[in-house]
Design a protein that fits this description.
Layout (H helix, E strand, L loop, with lengths): L1 H23 L4 E6 L5 E5 L2 E9 L3 E7 L5 E7 L2 E7 L8 E8 L3 E5 L2 E7 L5 E7 L2 E6 L2 E7 L2 E6 L3 E5 L4 E6 L2 E8 L2 E6 L3 E8 L2 E5 L6 E8 L2 E4 L6 E7 L4 E3 L17 E5 L4 E9 L2 E4 L11
Parallel strand pairs: 2-6, 2-8, 3-7, 3-9, 8-10, 9-11, 10-12, 11-13, 12-14, 13-15, 14-16, 15-17, 16-18, 17-19, 18-20, 19-21, 20-25, 21-26, 22-25, 23-26
Antiparallel strand pairs: 1-4, 4-7, 5-6, 22-24
Amino acid sequence: MVHAVTATVLSTLLAQAPAEARQNRAPQTDQTVPAARGTRLVIDNHSGEVVIHAWEKDAVRVQARHTSRARVNVRTGANVINVDAETERGPVGSVDYDINAPAWIAIKIEGQYDYVSVEGVQGEISVETVRGDVVLKNIGSAIAKTIEGAIEIDGARGKLTLSSVNEEIKVTGASGEVAAETTNGEITLMRMEAIAVEVATINGDVVYEGRLADRGHYSFTNHSGDIELTVPETSNATFNVRAYSGEFNTALPVKGPDSSQVRRGRRVSYTLGNGSAEVELESFSGDIKLRRPGAARTRRDQ
């Protein structure tokens, strides 16, 4: 048993070593170009990493680690800075970018096999990749699409449009509008201050924790999985509930018919406070639950 554990740890360290070595070695490309207000940053990277941090300078610094045969191009045009890589012949291979950019800049990132991380940028962000995770922190607005990758947002003030096919979406601390959809993955929204939310998934649970703004609009649709909302008892909301093959239960002091008398597939409304916010809850094969903050979760929920 000891030998098996030791072998596992050793294999993990060996797998991490090349990645750490790449990060520690000096970049093959290090170029800084000025960025006038209104400029967009466009990055095309087939595979590798794109890591962007905001800084106070009106300039874009591009550091990149890549093979010796690859050449990174940083081109400036009319209100745009384009970053890509090429070779005279053969594939480019993976390119790892470490970029500093102004907080105000708008960013567009496209690729096939990319890990993307952006922090502190308030301009609109657009990310589209096939396989790879997307992590955005302390941002404004964003559009993020991936097929085989998770999406994680931590702190957002603007509109979010998020889509993943086979991984989860997690949003923490958003205060604008949120639209999120997956095919096979959970959607988790925590510490939310959003004024509008639209969530849909086919296979995976949906979890929402946060406030419901007066006159806000919220929609949660799930095919195979539970929907769980944790909101303050002082919220003003009308919950329109429809469950086909699951149960509805609430720990909130809502006004409405007894859940045991509700026919499956029928839309039923429950009111909390003055009912100002509109909340649509629909599940085809899963339970719908309304919870108070701090309520203990069952083993199944955990």
